[in-house]
Specification:
four-stranded antiparallel β-sheet; 28% strand
Length: 192
């Protein structure tokens, strides 16, 4: 287990980089992970019985405060595992790794996610879902939402043991995946 600070340090390697996907149908999806996405993507906002999280939850600057506490060692892996809410996010937290974010790029993608095909969901802004089965045939999901200017952003990351969010959706294959640094250089590229 890498620990919370290591998990953050790994995530920061791709923060502020453009994630650029070209699909076989010609569509291009591009978004950036921001460092402030980390607490939500890892599920830390759900651990509301931890004092540090409770202090900042729902307030402006929550993500930056949590990142600062992790970097300073004031919020650790041991701390989050003591939360009574940790079992509810444990799979999500453990599956949220840089390696798994990369491997999501080697799977099919749900395009034009249709929430009406689900009995219940809070993914109101989701347009795309990158998903992949883990070794136990359970699904990791990275949801990408659309903003009002026509751009895209990472909305959430979660773990679901069933195909609930995947079944009956429209899938497309990725033709090329690139990670582009802020200076325009290619950090990573692969063609399929």
């Amino acid at each position: 287990m890498p620990g919370l600070k290591k998990k953050l340090d790994d995530f920061l390697k791709i923060a502020d980089c453009k994630m650029h996907y070209t699909f076989y149908n010609g569509f291009i999806l591009e978004f950036e992970f921001k460092k402030t996405n980390f607490p939500h993507m890892a599920g830390l906002h759900k651990l509301k019985d931890i004092n540090i999280i409770q202090t900042y939850l729902g307030k402006q600057g929550f993500a930056n405060q949590i990142l600062s506490k992790i970097k300073k060692g004031a919020l650790t892996e041991a701390d989050i595992r003591t939360s009574k809410y940790f079992p509810g996010i444990q799979k999500r937290y453990e599956e949220f790794t840089l390696e798994n974010l990369f491997s999501l790029s080697y799977s099919d993608v749900i395009i034009d996610f249709d929430i009406t095909k689900l009995a219940k969901s809070r993914l109101k802004n989701t347009k795309f879902i990158l998903f992949e089965k883990n070794k136990n045939q359970e699904n990791r999901h990275l949801c990408i939402a659309g903003n009002q200017t026509g751009g895209f952003y990472p909305e959430t990351f979660f773990f679901e043991s069933s195909d609930y969010y995947v079944k009956n959706q429209t899938l497309e294959k990725i033709k090329q995946f690139q990670i582009i640094k802020a200076d325009g250089s290619i950090y990573f590229e692969d063609n399929f």
